Amino acid sequence: MTDDVAIEAKPSEADFVRAAELFGVLSTPVRLQIIGELCAGERHVTHLLNALDVSQPNMSRHLNVLYKAGVVAKRRSGAHVFYRVANDSVVSICQAVCARQEARPSSVRGGFPKVSGDPRN
């Protein structure tokens, strides 16, 4: 009798390269804060600017990096631009890392907001 266990393929070098690129995109605290804000749902750029202590040009630069990496998606409505999390696995990664940091006694308390279900809702 054999077990019906799926054997996962070993990650390729390209998989590790893509993972490293994603971690590079996520290596900036401001970008993690942006993702944290977007966990609550789609947000207008003005909301993000009011929520974070970041200049408008700096916010635009970080949003552009996140957008090009496929981490966030954007929607235009007239002259307004709204952003949302486009890659749900990024939220899981951020939550796991921040939860681990919360468990460390020397870390600053806070962390990434926990979301249930789809973070875009």
Distance between the termini: 45 Å
| Rg estimate, integer Å | 17 Å
Strand content: 5-15%
The count of domains is 1
Sheet with most strands: strand arrangement:
1-3-2
CATH domain topology: Arc Repressor Mutant, subunit A
H/E element sequence: HHEHHEEH
- Could you list the spans in which at least 5 consecutive residues all have pLDDT below 50? 115-121
What overall geometry do the principal axes of the alpha carbons give? globular
Provide keyphrases for this structure:
three-stranded antiparallel β-sheet, 3 strands, disordered C terminus, 121 residues, 5 helices, Arc Repressor Mutant, subunit A, mainly alpha
Task: Describe this entry's structure for a reader.
The chain is mainly alpha-helical and 121 residues long. The chain has a single domain, classed as Winged helix-like DNA-binding domain superfamily/Winged helix DNA-binding domain (Arc Repressor Mutant, subunit A), CATH 1.10.10. Helix content is 49%, strand content 12%. The protein has five helices and three strands; from the N terminus they run H-H-E-H-H-E-E-H. A three-stranded antiparallel β-sheet has the order 1-3-2. A hairpin with a 2-residue loop joins strand 2 and strand 3. It starts with 12 loop residues before the first helix and ends in an 18-residue tail after the last helix.
How are the elements arranged and paired?
Layout: H1 13-25, H2 29-38, E1 43-44, H3 45-51, H4 56-68, E2 72-77, E3 80-85, H5 88-103
Antiparallel strand pairs: 1-3, 2-3
